[in-house]
Amino acid sequence: MQNPFAMPHCKVFHAPGNNKSGEHDAGLFWSLWETALSGRVWQGELINRRKDGGLYHEEMAITPIRESNGEISHFLAIKQDITKRKHHDEQLFQAQKMEAIGKLAGNIALDLTNLLTVIHGSAELVLADKGRLKDCDRRHLKKITDATEHAAELTRQLLAFGRRQVIQTQPVDLNQVIGSYTKMLNRVIGEAITLRCHFAEDLPSVNADVGMIEQILINLIANARDAMPQGGSIDITTEAVTLDAGYAETHPEAHLGKHLAISITDTGMGIYPEYLPRIFEPFFTTKQPGTGTGLGLSTVYGIVKQHQGWIEVSSQLGQGTTFKILLPANSPDVPRATVPQAKPARLARQEKILLVEDDDDVRMVAHDVLEGSGYQILDAANGLEALNIWKTNASKIDLLLTDIVMPGELNGWELAAKLRRERPGLKVILISSYAAHQKERNQARDLVLPKPFSLEDLTDTVRNCLDTARRAD
Q: Is the full-model pTM beyond 0.85?
């Protein structure tokens, strides 16, 4: 046969003799030829090794070619390099797996938030009664509040991983955010590790929650520190990148267009290749028992995804690791915002609050806390009950404090909108376990009280909201 390699992905082989040479496993090799020599078509995938040592995947079909007398004289092999497709499929599968785990973790965390709010709030209410408590009772109650605060932090991390944490984004300068946080980061890493920052100039802003960007930094820097017990260096680099269709083909999570990249590179021990696909899974950790929760990288993953970004990781054993975070960039004309300063808490002035919460225990705790702080409280278990209370008390209500997700015809958003049609200036605080209807919240500019909340969180948020209303009046 003339020019058997004329087609770039088509090869013709002579029928083999007793030749066992080749790159493939001997068992697979002879299984392949046993099928072909029997006159049947063999189809399958092969893993080959390049001259440089790298592996590549091939999809191949081998078809016997017969002479006029029926004997097999040649074999036609049609193959295709599917290395990129396999890599893409693996990345897509990993993204889908993380999405499923995130939903499960988020749902569990949502159920825990109400329980933790009740436990913590009830313990704090008892602690507030200083006259009747013995010292031992006070110690035990303090242990309860400390434990629930720790559990609440774990819950917030699960909510972040499941992308259900409440975020408040604004256009920010990442160079400024990172630069102002380096003092804290240096305290985390200690004197044996050198922290260097390399900031690109004239970066566009990104829409981000400053507190969560700081959380990303602290988690990644702490991990880098732990990978360098004998010391080393960490480099934080920012840059602007523009991603095209070619890049998106090999990165299923990527989006086209302009992005800002934050790279955190350490000179530590690196990550074993078999661990890389699992490092963002909740509770997966390679640290010794008792030294890590396995939620640090999960939190980073969830926060980045909630900011419409993604993470790339590269690591070599003994040479270090790089985490590269990519976030969508704003157009150059979007102004950068400054982080609002917290408003000082003030004493209650007998204002009347309409409290709407479908969980009886959470509503009871919130009622007792606010009433004990000097407010008048009107309770409702759902949106319809709240409307009935509103009909006879509309002119007296100073604040609507409502859960967002409630059963029945009206959720918290709809209830607030309905009441504001009658009282446009009504102050509203929304209670939420996750970042529901983020766009609507930003437009309404309402305060959000994340669950689980402490009594101080509740009273401070209510006071700040009412004081803002009074200054606006």
A: no
